[in-house]
Amino acid sequence: MAGNGVFADILDGDVYKYYSDGEWKKSSSGKSVSIVNPTTRKTQYKVQACTQEEVNKVMETAKVAQKSWAKTPLWKRAELLHKAAAILKDHKAPIAECLVKEIAKPAKDAVTEVVRSGDLVSYCAEEGVRILGEGKYLVSDSFPGNERTKYCLTSKIPLGVVLAIPPFNYPVNLAVSKIAPALIAGNSLVLKPPTQGAVSALHMVHCFHLAGFPKGLISCVTGKGSEIGDFLTMHPSVNCISFTGGDTGIAISKKAGMIPLQMELGGKDACIVLEDADLDLVAGNIIKGGFSYSGQRCTAVKVVLVMESVADALVEKVNAKLSKLTVGPPEENCDITPVVSESSANFIEGLVMDAKEKGATFCQAYKREGNLIWPLLLDNVRPDMRIAWEEPFGPVLPVIRINSVEEGIHHCNASNFGLQGCVFTKDINKAILISDTMETGTVQINSAPARGPDHFPFQGLKDSGIGSQGITNSINMMTKIKSTVINLPSPSYTMG
Ligand code: NAP
């Protein structure tokens, strides 16, 4: 059970503690932040509202702990990460319970998120041992005008303190995707979890605590992003920010200092459907890609661009599958569950009403109860409708009928986002040519956009992000290259 058994230490009365210097603490602010259950719309949990002084203390201990962690053998860092992964997976049930209550994730998917996170941590430990165990050896005479008088040895060194800020939709997985690479690379880590999802994240952090990481190496400060966010992201002790979320990331990148940034932001993933596509395959992927976790995924299919000649047939197939989706509470494993907050539901409703006023075809009646929005396909959407461009982050999907592939590509590339996209056709040559012209970080051929498997590179172009994630890329991003050059008194060539 959440907050019980091994997790009893992290709870004080009805408020969850924050984690600093290897201990669970109450904030001196005396204030807490409420976490509203999206299904009941009542307060489910409370977390500490940490103060700036507490953030300062966390940064100080993170700096000190990092120095000795960087001198900890790689195999030992990996060993601790493997231990944390095992503990995390052992406690998947109470953590999944929090995900269900805080973010209305269907119960089965909540368990999957925790297990996938454990696997990610283990893979990261193995990958880190491999790639951080290697450096480069360069000789000088490959550059014009030089003789072989210099040997250059390079290795990857940690950056220092990494600040990790994940979003509400995967508060465990998108936290460990930052924590594990940071730690294996010899950095310390400060986590600021999303408010909706904070209690799941605190349970996950406790698994790292139980694994026995040194004091101060990992910290977790809670509070509203709007209140402590700027103080954290502009803190002089932070040497790298890894952020996943919406437009907040753009604001952070403008304020952050001269430090490496990893930004995974929003998306408006297009699904381009050609005339020769297997429409059953497309319909299945639109349902999975557009409506899983009620559309609250960065890589959800967010606009369908289908050739007019097959549009009627595709819409019919999607509607048939959509009518089978179950709608209700996450505890019952329904396909469509309440969206994360009332303001999110209001935003989605605004997009739907705008499309209605401008003449979109409603394939289902619009229905909402509290934060629960029934799945809706909007046909004949046109570019003057907001939903053609904006990210609903809900179970509402627009279909735009196109008369040429170029029209579809044009719509995809006119977006300010460039996360992923997908194209459905049986002609692989056409698929590759279309993929090359789509301005997105990834294009999936004959499948819906997806973030995983977690070791694949994952990146957004334009407003969708800075840098690339995926386990290997994240480890590399959280390190710097250090060179040592050996200067010889005279050229030296190995003769064998
Ligand atoms: P969000 O509102 O941008 O929040 C993300 C995180 O930023 C939360 O932890 C939030 O904390 C924190 N935050 C808020 N204001 C801040 C500030 N001034 N400084 C620092 N941190 C601050 O995003 P969300 O609603 O949680 O997630 C949905 C968005 O994330 C969508 O746009 C989605 O596409 C995107 N997303 C992208 C990816 C990707 O990989 N590209 C993956 C998943 C989601 P509080 O909760 O306390 O406000």
UniProtKB/TrEMBL annotation:
<dbReference type="GO" id="GO:0008886">
    <property type="term" value="F:glyceraldehyde-3-phosphate dehydrogenase (NADP+) (non-phosphorylating) activity"/>
</dbReference>
<dbReference type="InterPro" id="IPR015590">
    <property type="entry name" value="Aldehyde_DH_dom"/>
</dbReference>
<dbReference type="GO" id="GO:0005737">
    <property type="term" value="C:cytoplasm"/>
</dbReference>
<dbReference type="GO" id="GO:0008911">
    <property type="term" value="F:lactaldehyde dehydrogenase (NAD+) activity"/>
</dbReference>
<keyword id="KW-0963">Cytoplasm</keyword>
<protein>
    <recommendedName>
        <fullName>NADP-dependent glyceraldehyde-3-phosphate dehydrogenase</fullName>
        <ecNumber>1.2.1.9</ecNumber>
    </recommendedName>
</protein>
<dbReference type="InterPro" id="IPR029510">
    <property type="entry name" value="Ald_DH_CS_GLU"/>
</dbReference>
<dbReference type="InterPro" id="IPR016163">
    <property type="entry name" value="Ald_DH_C"/>
</dbReference>
<dbReference type="InterPro" id="IPR016162">
    <property type="entry name" value="Ald_DH_N"/>
</dbReference>
<keyword id="KW-0521">NADP</keyword>
<dbReference type="Pfam" id="PF00171">
    <property type="entry name" value="Aldedh"/>
</dbReference>
<dbReference type="InterPro" id="IPR051020">
    <property type="entry name" value="ALDH-related_metabolic_enz"/>
</dbReference>
<keyword id="KW-0560">Oxidoreductase</keyword>
<comment type="similarity">
    <text>Belongs to the aldehyde dehydrogenase family.</text>
</comment>
<dbReference type="InterPro" id="IPR016161">
    <property type="entry name" value="Ald_DH/histidinol_DH"/>
</dbReference>
<feature type="domain" description="Aldehyde dehydrogenase">
    <location>
        <begin position="24"/>
        <end position="483"/>
    </location>
</feature>
<feature type="active site">
    <location>
        <position position="264"/>
    </location>
</feature>
<dbReference type="InterPro" id="IPR016160">
    <property type="entry name" value="Ald_DH_CS_CYS"/>
</dbReference>
